[in-house]
Amino acid sequence: MELWYTDQHTKDVRFSIKMKEQLISVESEFQRIDIIETYEYGRVLVLDGEMMITEKDEFIYHEMITHVPMAVHPNIRNVLVIGAGDGGTIRELTKYDTIEHIDMVEVDKEIVQVCREYMPFTACKLNDKRVSMHFEEGLRFVRGKKDEYDLIIVDCADPFGPAEGLFTREFYGNCYKALHDDGILINQHESPFYNEHSGSVQKAHRHIKAVFPLSTVYQCHIPSYPSGHWLFGFASKKYDPIKDLNDRKWNDLKLPVRYYNTDLHKGCFYLPNYVKELLGSNE
């Protein structure tokens, strides 16, 4: 008998992957956590029935959420990462020797424990000495911070359940206060393609634009995500993501990456017309 995992992209669209086996299923205080082994996508993290990352294409997401701001800001020392329980964003950040400290805030301790055991390809750097873990709500944690970080990365799930508060104007305002005068905020911005998701894109962009002097969006292609077309938000107090890109400095680092490069960096900020219209309709 064949086993298939199906991710519900919308009420009318499904994405199915043939499974080898289910490795673990646990119910945490906040959500159900499943790890499944698949033939094409390797190991897959599923939260409350929704696919979060896959072994085959997680590098795209994690490289794009991390290296874009790192190639722009010339002096990132202190970083706050909200979410990121799988560890992939931490893995990418620890490639930079210049980073001195990373606060990782994850509401669900169980995710970290499960990923450490079953997804070592993303969780491999969670024990880095520069990483301090805080198991609490990101919204609550950032409220108490002022002028502490060069970079904040919001690597959270969709804007429902535990992550809902991380898509509000209050949250983005608190992030603004927590950043230094030249700080950058990066957030996963959902997909613009399906109507069920595009409203979240508009809402998040509107809230961030109301808080930060520079707010824009960039894109990448993640095959396992709804529609494959995914957006990230780039908000800054000072830096322009294209004009202030220091491609020579970043390329001299010779970091091991599989998706990101500085040519792609420039191109990912040039958006299709339908995305421009989506972002502009509520501005």
UniProtKB/TrEMBL annotation:
Keyword Glycoprotein on entry: no
- What molecular function does GO assign, one term? spermidine synthase activity
Q: What is its EC number?
A: 2.5.1.16
| Any one GO BP annotation for this protein | spermidine biosynthetic process
Q: What's the protein called, per UniProt? A: Polyamine aminopropyltransferase
Which reactions is this enzyme annotated as catalysing? Answer: S-adenosyl 3-(methylsulfanyl)propylamine + putrescine = S-methyl-5'-thioadenosine + spermidine + H(+)
**What is known about its subunit structure?**
Homodimer or homotetramer.
UniProt keyword terms in alphabetical order: Polyamine biosynthesis, Spermidine biosynthesis, Transferase
PROSITE patterns tied to this protein: PABS_2 (PS51006)
State the superkingdom.
Answer: Bacteria
Q: Where does spermidine bind?
A: 62, 86, 155-158
> Which CDD domains does this entry report, sorted A to Z?
AdoMet_MTases
Record pathway: Amine and polyamine biosynthesis; spermidine biosynthesis; spermidine from putrescine: step 1/1
What this chain does, per the record?
Answer: Catalyzes the irreversible transfer of a propylamine group from the amino donor S-adenosylmethioninamine (decarboxy-AdoMet) to putrescine (1,4-diaminobutane) to yield spermidine.
| Pfam families recorded | Spermine_synt_N (PF17284), Spermine_synth (PF01564)
Q: What PANTHER family does the record tag this protein with?
A: SPERMIDINE SYNTHASE, SPERMIDINE/SPERMINE SYNTHASE
Domain PABS residues, every copy = 2-237
